[in-house]
Amino acid sequence: MAHIEMFMTPTCPYCQRARALLDRKGVTYDIINVAAEPQLRDVMEKRARRHTVPQIFIDDRHIGGCDDLYALDAAGGLDPLLQG
Known about the structure:
With 84 residues, the chain is of the alpha+beta class. It has a single domain, classed as Glutaredoxin, CATH 3.40.30. Helices cover 45% and strands 20% of the residues. The chain has four helices and four strands. The protein has a four-stranded mixed sheet with strand order 2-1-3-4, with helices on both faces. Strand 3 (55-58) and strand 4 form a beta hairpin. It is globular, with a radius of gyration of 12 Å.
């Protein structure tokens, strides 16, 4: 199974949509709440080279944000990555 990390904030609607898709896929993932731990936003920005949330990583591969995750799923590329 893949290791999934999502940098997010609790009030972000895009974060909630991304979580909903991952929940529908039945996978577990680590939530990194950059609102609760602001120093982790710097970590996110260095890894993703983006400053918006969510930022999603699967096995250290940067997927991007919510729209990127949904596009990957629509293209049939998400499920193979989730298998690890």
